[in-house]
Every structure is written in C-alpha cells, then in structure tokens.
Amino acid sequence: MAHKIAVLVAGSWGTALSRVLADNGHEVKLWTRNPEQAERINSEHLNEKFLPGALLPEGITATTSMEEAVSDAVAVLFVAPSSAMREVARQAAPHLHKDALVIHATKGFESESLKRMSTVLSEELGRPENRIVVLSGPSHAEEVVNRLPTTIVVASQEISCAESAQDLFMNEAYFRVYTNPDLIGVETSGAIKNIIALGAGLSDGLGFGDNAKAALITRGLAEISRLGAAMGANPLTFAGLAGVGDLIVTCTSRHSRNWRAGSMLSQGLPLAEVLERMGMVVEGVRTTKAAYVLADRYKVEMPITNQLHSVLFEGKSPEQAVGALMGRVRTHEIEEIASASRNKWLNG
C-alpha cells in the first residue's frame, strides 16, 4: 500500500532513502530550506550537490514548506545533521499527525546535551522514546541511490514500530531490512563508528598500512562496545549490522566522509580547512567531543577516542597520537572486551 512519507532533510542520505521509499511506491515529500535545490529536484530530478548524476524518480517531490511535507504523512523520516535535529523536529512538531510513525537515520549525539537523537525527537515531538525508530547499518548514500544491494537495521523498543518501518523500506530488488529491539545499541554504534573512521583515515593518510587499520577497527569496536554497554545497550548488537558492519564500511570506503576528513588531517591541514573543503557535515568531529565527555561520565576507557580528541582539538600531531596508543600499558584482549558485557548483565 502506498503512503505519503515526509523526509527531512534533502542531504545525501535523506535523498538516497527517498529513492528507496519512492521505488517502493510511496509518495515522498522531501523537505529542504533551499528553494533552488527544491526547484532542481522537481524540474530536473537531480540533487547535484549531494548526489551528482543520480536521476531521482518522479515519486519524490521537494518542498520548502514544512507544513506541506509533514501534514497527513503516515511516517516522517528525520535525516537532519545531529546539530540541527532539535530545530528541525521543533519545526515539524505542529504539523505531525498524532499517529505518524517517527523514524530517524542520523548518526550522532547532540553536542550540548550529549543526548541520543531518539531522545531529542521524543522531547521535541512529545512522543515516547520507545516508539521512535532508528535506521542504521552499513550503507553509503552513493550506493543506495544507485540501487546497489544494501542491508540495514531498524530498531525500536516497540517491535510493532520497527516492523512498520521495515515494511516501508524493504524491497526484494536491493534494500533488505532487519529489525532490532536495541535502540540504544544501534544509535550508539552508528555515532561512535564515525570516530573510528576518522582514525582510519588518519592511519591510511600516514601510510601505516592494513595491519594498523585492522587493529584500529578491532580496537575501535571494543571502545564502541564498552561505551554502549555502559549506556544500557545489548552487547550482541555490536556484532551485527549496526555495529561491526557499519564500522567496516565506514572505515574502508572511499565514500566515507569521516575517512576522507581523517585522511586530510593526516596531511597537516587544520580542522577548519578540512571541514570547509568537505562542504558537508562530518559527524565524527562533533561525536568525538561528545564521546570524550561520555567516556568520562560513564568511567569507560576509550583510548582511540581520547587520542583523536587530542588531535582534533588540542593540537597533538597524528604521529604523537599513534605513539601514545602503541605505548599503552599491557592488557589482556579477551578480558578487556568481555568486561563491559559481563558488567552490564551483572549490574543491570
């Protein structure tokens, strides 16, 4: 059955997910603040700034009117950057139908409050957090918009909400969707993996090779697991699509913004210049600040995050950061990884 679905906003990921929904027969209202962008999407079916050359289906209509986009929508998909999520949700709230399904696909924390995106949406929309759905997993917009096979996960504490989102997005052609009840684990994985991807870009840019990157990804997964478990996630989530799956694709793909930003930083470019050259949001930078504080709050050891924080915001060179990581006190790998899982179940 076809439905009207609002997608907020018209960046690369929002546009790619709009294609999935339109391919599934839904009427998609893609909201943007930019009148020129909306006009080009509607007249030429192109979103050249974010997805050059990708021809969009006619089932996608762009609008600058939040009321037009959201009113009577059966589902609203929020894909705003983490820094803009609260503002976008506040604008959408007056027009949102009380029974509309709320989904988000943003990977990050709110910088000021350190809250997950589902919490921000719950506060602004007046919806219980357990009925909000997060869409995450190993997925680059550039591949999804070209209908390359992709598998993701939708998570909600209310399984019926996750299954409703699954029905909207899943198709047999190229987009497979699994459900997961662990909202906290899926959101935390999606956010923290961007930090590790920055580190992977730094490592590759410095020419450290595959051995170093494999170790970085593996130890990065341990950091994600420790913080996620401390925040209340199910440790098994980190072995799935939203955990190791998303981590691998973000740390190894040419499409990854965070990897590209890390690679540029390795060449000695200042952070401000890197962000200007990127021209798009690099969530890993904001997330590094948030995770640095969260690690202290939850008393979780996150050495990779700490060293990247020093590189991004304290002037430490990438070479010094690598030296600090290699020179850490000896520890036992299995015991260190398992401790977060064991503590969650013993104390929770």
From TrEMBL:
NCBIfam families: PRK00094.1-2, PRK00094.1-3, PRK00094.1-4
EC numbers, comma separated: 1.1.1.94
A single GO molecular function term of this UniProt record: glycerol-3-phosphate dehydrogenase (NADP+) activity
Protein name (database record): Glycerol-3-phosphate dehydrogenase [NAD(P)+]
The keyword Cytoplasm belongs to this UniProt entry's keyword annotation: yes
Keyword Chaperone included in the entry's annotation: no
Species: Cohnella endophytica
Domain Glycerol-3-phosphate dehydrogenase NAD-dependent C-terminal residues, every copy: 182-322
Role played: Catalyzes the reduction of the glycolytic intermediate dihydroxyacetone phosphate (DHAP) to sn-glycerol 3-phosphate (G3P), the key precursor for phospholipid synthesis.
Catalytic center residues: K193
Gene3D superfamilies in UniProt: N-(1-d-carboxylethyl)-l-norvaline Dehydrogenase, domain 2, NAD(P)-binding Rossmann-like Domain
GO BP terms: carbohydrate metabolic process; glycerol-3-phosphate biosynthetic process; glycerol-3-phosphate catabolic process; glycerophospholipid metabolic process; phospholipid biosynthetic process
